[in-house]
């Protein structure tokens, strides 16, 4: 199971704007290109573990500052789909 977590975390830590938009579309989550760009820039290189609820909460708080609370809720839904 640990390898699965590593793969997902690596993807989150290296995600591009287009990849984030693709995942959002795939999972029916509403974000625009500008928001995706800001979020992807924030996530790239952070080396976070979205399987750790404290780290995930911290990321979501930062996303709320960057793109607003509604977008943060949407991104959290996406993270929860990745981790379940």
TrEMBL record:
The source's domain of life comes to: Bacteria
Q: What is this protein called?
A: DUF2624 domain-containing protein
| Species of provenance | Neobacillus piezotolerans
Classification of source organism: Bacteria, Bacillati, Bacillota, Bacilli, Bacillales
